[in-house]
Automatic annotation (TrEMBL), chain A:
Belongs to the NqrB/RnfD family. Part of a membrane-bound complex that couples electron transfer with translocation of ions across the membrane. Keywords: Cell inner membrane, Cell membrane, Electron transport, Flavoprotein, FMN, Membrane, Phosphoprotein, Translocase, Transmembrane, Transmembrane helix, Transport. Its EC number is 7.-.-.-. This is Ion-translocating oxidoreductase complex subunit D. It comes from Marinomonas ushuaiensis DSM 15871.
UniProtKB/TrEMBL annotation, chain B:
The gene is rnfC. GO terms for cellular component: plasma membrane. Belongs to the 4Fe4S bacterial-type ferredoxin family. RnfC subfamily. The lineage of its organism: Bacteria, Pseudomonadati, Pseudomonadota, Gammaproteobacteria, Oceanospirillales. Residues 462-474, 698-709 have a biased composition (Basic and acidic residues). Pfam families: Complex1_51K (PF01512), Fer4_7 (PF12838), RnfC_N (PF13375). This is Ion-translocating oxidoreductase complex subunit C.
Length: 352, 956
């Protein structure tokens, strides 16, 4: 009778492995992917496929170089999740090499070079996104014009999407259009009310399509909350901070700012709040820390959107808060059982 | 009966309960096993002390082991039978180690010993009741096994607000408490009442999880029937609500402060099992000899609760519960969350064993491979202590112990909730346990290091003080030595008595020489042994042998020093005849003598240092160097001495043998030097053959010494034989002998004096011994010395009369004597002071002895001074200028000598630095060269000075 000798506890919660967590997050993006496909054609799905293949290849290559078990680590689905998040974040008609660049940079530099899963200080998907956004601004700003497509019912066919991504779609300009955020950003000196009336991207069709996208990601996010994969702290803090910022500034300057609702339902607000900011590895650990971290992201999103050089700022906001996450962690330790107050900072020797 | 308010605690998990299996069957009572294994340490604290011996027959309930100290407990025979062994057996412990156990073979009669229930517990003194509980071997049966009487005593620290009875039983699988409450409700309540009587708490609350409805119902029924003030608090099922701290938080809303005990906030927790045991002890007089244990797990066909005797082997119970050995994959004592695996089923049930979980592979599968922490925070949400497990894991893995402590690692209760929920299958608790023990070890090591540091500092201070004292003594001696040499020269003049034949060599010197030889052989032996030990790597032997060797070395050095002291004192007398003809040789001789003295002093110092730090290789090397220097210097002294004697004999041919011997000596010396160099090199590169080389060096030295000795002997004999035609030479030889005796006698005196001081330092009582023995020897030696001095003078007197330079020599001698006398006075004064310091009583002794000596010495001094005055007067009458000249020359000499010494010291220092800092070697070597140059210059100057002095003396 060879008895197993291990230390307690001897039992574990069945089924809830890391791969399960990753799978659930990928599944939670499905509503968003569906809506995006419905609105922008097959481009998003093709992007996700390209990204996934590139991510798995990169991960496998680096793992074998690092002499790690390739199969064991690929099965944790973390590379796939990064790929899916990047795939849905990139514009649907972005050339394939942009996607590959973004994904390989995310996997190789932002993740594996730091030591792989669990050791990356920055959100890999957002690092990849930021790299291509800075490097290739033109293809990265070509979102399809939803209004005309939906209105005319002539969404890009699968072949057209493929052509746009892998070759060159000659009449692509006929399909692309500024996003609402883009449109609002470039309204120049026109005041808000006129902008919403005159600029094509700010017409209700366009805005509504982005509302649908955000709603879909909200649904997925709520699903993650229900599964207890994420806690409410980060998304609530992100959206709350964005809402408050937009609300306060809208109150002060009605004519030049957009409504809080506009900010919450356009761009990557929901996607960022539920899928990007909640990346556990690069965010804060304690609940209080998550609140501060999320609020920081929300504030930064508003600041970048309003006064920055880019129409949307989720990627940069998340990356900036990734920087400060360790610091926030040090100052947001929870109060441990039996202690009068929580410890702060790293003053060794202090006790309470 | 009111329903108490229920609070909540952070985190917690809901693992599958798995409690139903073991409640299907009624309480089982397994038959007696073939033997009962009773570990002596079934509780926290000191193991019990056995009261029985092998072969004793014991009755059921008889005390077989008694408490061993305050935090300990008693042990009783669970049944009647025979003690068959007291031996190490495997016990139920996470470490899997063995422990001392009493082995009891039941006789099957179940014969009870006389039971003495404490019927009047209500009227008895509470401390008596506590003592009774201790006698009954009651310990906490929840898990830790804390002796109950100690816990109850501790409960009185603060006013007790809550007495909580822990019936939560939050671990999955375990139903022993549930069954106990169902079976022994009345006993439980009664036990609680007894304990409440003892501690007198404001509220008594039974905390029980809501997954035990039957137990709750029976408790409530009985309590309402009795109209008891005891409350039943039903808490929601959530692991780890049965943890003491968590249950306290659930029932009172208060937290036990970190690092404190529940008693500090006025709470006492007792397990239901303990309460029942207390009842049994008080009302029936039954000691703790059995307990309820759950036998469960899929590997058992008949999982159930059993009332089992302590010491029953687990294997017996598994058999009773129809274990399927093929399916048994993991055997856990305790629950699946905090229990520990057992290596074998041979371990016994002890007072704290609440469950045996015989799990199949499917039931408790081996843990999945550990994946990277993704900081998902599930552990944080589950932690009942509100820690940040993911951060603690990070710090544990990176061994950042301070940060881990800062993140309150020691507040972790190791409940395992974090590991349970971890999606990456990280054995978090294991990491924390490891880090905790690492921190504890580091703390202990720190404490040890602090102690060592304190000891080291104290020792260093002591050493410094000793060194300062030694330095002061050395300085005093240095002052005394030149004076001595002058007085010794002056000594012969006052007693111009008739010459006496050569005096026999004193016993002291003989002894000394024999001692040196013996010491050398001993040293050699010890070194050989050391070498062997080093070759065979017997570490402990090496240490002791090293000590022996160093001891021998110091002893030898001391002896040699004493011998060398004899030689320089004797040498000047030897050389006197040569001074007439060859002052240059005389100068050289003087120099050599100075060298000998200097090196001797340094050697002594180093040896002492070595004694304190026996491992210092550098020091050893230096010592050997010095020893060699000393030998060389001595050799030169000898050579010069003999050369001068030989030269006094006109046309004395040096024999061939002598030549050969000299050549041999030179070769041997060269060999010594070579080996020495090799040794230095070896030491520099830390070569392993250092010791071998050292050994070689020793041997070479010895050879050189022997040759020198041989050289010295034939020289003297030669001198004797060759110089027979010369009129002076036989006289000179006899004189030499006499002088040697003189020196030996002086050395004897010194020894005696030293011994006296040593004894005095040792304490008061010794002072009496001192007074009785050594002083006698001292006086004897002094007498001898005086006699010798008398004898020696006539040998010189003719020369004094014959020539003026001889007169100058005598003058010198006188001066030396004068200095010796002065030194004697100083010593006596010092001794007096020392004695005075030691205390009042000795002051009397002091008054009796030393003052006398002092007075004597003073008288001597005055006499010497008088004679000195006379002779100098004579001299001044004849040559008033030369007197002053020589005086100035003396002064200059002294100064030069000191300078030389300083230069030498400088060189030594520099070489030491050179050893330590090889990178600045060049500059240091330059410095050394410069200093050597200086030293040489000074020596040359000194030679000139002495030479001029001699010539001036000769001239007059």
């Amino acid at each position: 009778m060879a008895l197993l000798r291990i230390s307690s506890p001897h039992t574990q919660r069945a089924g809830h492995r890391t791969s399960w967590v990753m799978q659930m997050v990928i599944l939670a993006t499905l509503p968003g992917i569906a809506v995006q496909t419905w609105l922008f054609g097959w481009g998003t799905l093709i992007n996700v496929m390209i990204a996934s293949i590139a991510a798995l290849l990169c991960e496998a290559a680096i793992l074998s170089i690092r002499r790690r078990s390739v199969a064991f680590f690929l099965k944790d689905y973390s590379a796939l999740l990064t790929a899916v998040l990047l795939g849905v974040a990139l514009p649907p008609t972005v050339p394939w090499w942009v996607t590959v660049t973004a994904v390989s940079f995310a996997i190789i530099f932002a993740k594996q070079l730091y030591g792989g899963l669990g050791n990356n200080p920055f959100n890999p998907a957002m690092v990849g996104y930021a790299i291509v956004l800075v490097s290739f601004p033109v293809p990265m700003s070509q979102w399809l014009g939803v209004q005309s497509i939906v209105a005319s019912g002539e969404s890009l066919s699968f072949l057209q999407s493929l052509q746009a991504i892998f070759h060159h779609l000659p009449n692509i300009d006929g399909y692309t259009m500024a996003t609402p955020l883009d449109g609002f950003k470039n309204k120049d000196l026109v005041d808000s009310a006129t902008a919403f009336q005159t600029i094509e991207a700010l017409q209700s069709a366009s805005i509504n399509s982005w509302l649908w996208v955000n709603m879909a990601y909200l649904v997925g996010g709520v699903g993650l909350l229900w599964l207890r994969i994420i806690t409410w702290h980060t998304p609530v803090a992100v959206l709350g901070a964005l809402l408050i910022m937009a609300g306060v500034f809208h109150l002060f300057d009605m004519s030049n700012t957009a409504t809080p609702l506009f900010h919450l339902t356009t761009g990557a607000a929901m996607f960022g709040a539920f899928f990007i900011a909640t990346d556990p590895v690069s965010s804060c650990t304690s609940n209080r820390g998550k609140l501060i971290y999320g609020a920081g992201i929300g504030i930064l999103i508003y600041i970048i959107r309003t006064w920055g050089g880019y129409p949307d700022g989720v990627a940069f906001a998340v990356l900036l808060m990734n920087f400060s996450a360790p610091l926030i962690d040090y100052y947001t330790q929870p109060r441990t059982y039996g202690h009068k107050k929580a410890k702060k900072g790293l003053k060794i020797g202090e006790d309470n | 009966m009111q329903t108490p308010q229920i609070f909540s605690f952070h985190g917690g998990i809901h693992p599958e309960e798995n409690k139903a299996q073991s409640l299907q069957l009624p309480l089982g009572r397994p038959r007696l096993p073939s033997e009962l294994i009773l570990p002596l340490g079934q509780h926290i604290g000191q193991s019990s002390r056995p009261l029985v011996k092998v072969g004793d027959h014991v009755l059921k309930g008889e005390t077989i082991a008694i408490n061993n100290g305050f935090l300990s407990s008693c042990l009783h025979a669970p049944t009647s039978g025979t003690i068959t062994a007291i031996e190490e057996r495997a016990i139920a412990h996470p470490s899997g180690l063995n422990d001392l156990c009493l082995i009891l073979e039941p006789d099957g009669k179940e014969e009870w010993t006389t039971l003495n229930p404490l019927t009047e517990w209500q009227s008895n003194d509470k401390t008596d009741v506590l003592a009774y509980l201790a006698k009954m071997g009651i310990v906490g049966m929840g898990g830790a096994g804390f002796p109950t009487q100690v816990k109850l005593q501790g409960a009185h620290k603060n006013a007790l607000k809550y007495f909580i009875v822990n019936a939560a039983e939050c671990e999955p699988y375990i139903t022993a408490d549930d069954m106990l409450i169902r079976e022994k409700t009345q006993e439980l309540i009664s036990g609680i009442e007894i304990l409440q009587h003892l501690v007198n708490a404001d509220q008594v609350v039974i905390g029980i999880e809501d997954n035990k409805p039957t137990a709750i119902a029976s408790l409530n029924a009985l309590l309402s029937e009795q109209n008891s003030p005891i409350q039943v608090a039903v808490v929601p099922t959530k692991y780890p609500s049965g943890g003491e701290k968590q249950l306290i938080q659930l029932l009172t809303g208060e937290e036990v402060p970190s690092g404190q005990y529940p008693a500090d906030i006025g709470v006492l927790c007792q397990n239901v099992g303990t309460c029942v045991a207390v009842h049994d002890a008080i009302h029936y007089g039954k000691p703790l000899i059995s307990r309820f244990t759950t036998l469960t797990g899929d590997a058992l066909k008949a999982p159930q609760n059993v009332d089992v005797l302590l010491g029953t082997p687990v294997a017996h119970l598994l058999e009773y519960a129809e274990s399927q050995h093929n399916n048994l994959h993991r055997l856990v004592m305790g629950g699946p969350m905090m229990g520990y695996t057992l290596d074998s089923a041979a371990v016994p049930i002890v007072k704290t064993s609440n469950c045996i979980l015989a799990a199949t592979k499917k039931e408790l599968p081996p843990p999945a491979p550990e994946q990277a922490c993704i900081r998902c925070g599930m552990c944080e949400q589950a932690c009942p202590a509100n820690l940040l497990p993911q951060q603690l894991l990070w710090f544990s893995k990176s061994q950042e112990h301070e940060k881990a402590e800062h993140y309150n690692l020691f507040d972790c209760i190791e409940c395992g909730a974090c590991s349970y929920v971890c999606p990456s299958s990280i054995p978090l608790v294991q990491y924390y346990r490891h880090t905790k023990s690492a921190i504890r070890e580091a703390r202990e090591a720190n404490i040890k290091a602090d102690l060592a540091k304190q000891r080291f500092e104290a020792r260093k201070a002591r050493q410094d003080a000793e060194a300062a004292e030694r330095e002061a003594k050395r300085l005093a001696r240095q002052k005394a030595t030149p004076a001595k040499s002058t007085t010794s020269k002056a000594a012969p003049s006052p007693s111009k008595a008739a010459p006496t034949p050569a005096a026999p060599i004193s016993d002291e010197a003989k002894k000394l020489k024999v001692d040196v030889v013996i010491g050398k052989t001993k040293l050699k032996k010890a070194q050989k042994l050391l070498l062997e030990a080093q070759e065979n790597e017997h570490l402990e032997d090496i240490k002791t042998l090293q000590l022996q060797v160093t001891e021998q070395e110091t002893q030898l050095a001391l002896l040699e020093e004493q011998l060398s002291k004899l030689t320089p004192v004797a040498a000047p007398v030897q050389t006197t005849p040569s001074a007439q003809s060859k002052p240059a040789v005389n100068d050289e001789l003087k120099k050599a003598k100075i060298d000998v003295a200097l090196i001797g002093v340094k050697l002594k110092k180093l040896n002492k240092q070595l004694e304190e730090t026996p491992d210092d290789q550098e020091l050893k090397g230096k010592i050997t160097n010095f020893e060699i220097d000393l030998k060389a210097a001595q050799a030169t002294v000898d050579k010069l001495g003999s050369a001068s004697t030989a030269s006094t004999a006109p046309k004395a041919a040096i024999s061939d043998d002598l030549k050969k011997l000299k050549i041999d000596t030179a070769i041997a010396k060269a060999a010594v030097k070579k080996v020495e160099k090799a040794l230095q090199k070896a030491e520099e590169i830390q070569a392993p053959e250092v010791d071998a080389i050292r050994q070689q060096l020793k041997e070479a030295q010895q050879r050189a010494d022997e040759l020198e000795k041989a050289l010295a002997n034939p020289q003297s004999t030669d001198a004797k034989t060759v110089s027979t035609p010369a009129q002076n030479s036989p006289d000179a030889d006899a004189e030499k002998k006499r002088k040697i005796d003189l020196a030996i006698a002086k050395a004897g005196i010194k020894k005696a004096e030293k011994n006296i001081t040593l004894l005095k330092e040792q304490g008061k009582n010794d002072a009496e011994i001192t007074a009785s023995e050594w002083p006698k020897k001292l006086t004897e030696a002094q007498e001898k010395l005086a006699a010798l001095e008398k004898e020696s003078t006539p040998a010189i007197t003719p020369k004094v009369e014959a020539a003026v330079p001889a007169n100058a020599d005598a003058d010198k001698k006188r001066k030396i004597d004068l200095a010796i006398a002065k030194a004697g006075i100083k010593k006596a004064e010092k001794n007096i002071a020392l004695l005075k310091e030691q205390g009042k009583n000795e002051a009397e002794i002091t008054e009796s002895e030393w003052p006398k000596k002092l007075a004597e010495a003073q008288e001597k001094l005055s006499a010497l001074e008088a004679t000195d005055g006379n002779t100098t007067q004579k001299a001044t009458q004849e040559l008033p200028e030369s007197k002053t000249d020589s005086a100035t020359n003396d002064l200059a000499n002294k100064i030069k000598k000191q300078k030389i010494a300083a230069a030498k010291a400088q060189i030594n220092k520099l070489t030491k630095r050179l050893d330590n800092e090889p990178e600045v070697a060049d500059s240091i070597q330059q410095e050394i060269a410069a200093t050597r140059q200086k030293q040489e210059d000074a020596e040359a100057l000194l030679a000139q000075l002495t030479h001029s002095k001699e010539t001036t003396q000769e001239n007059h």
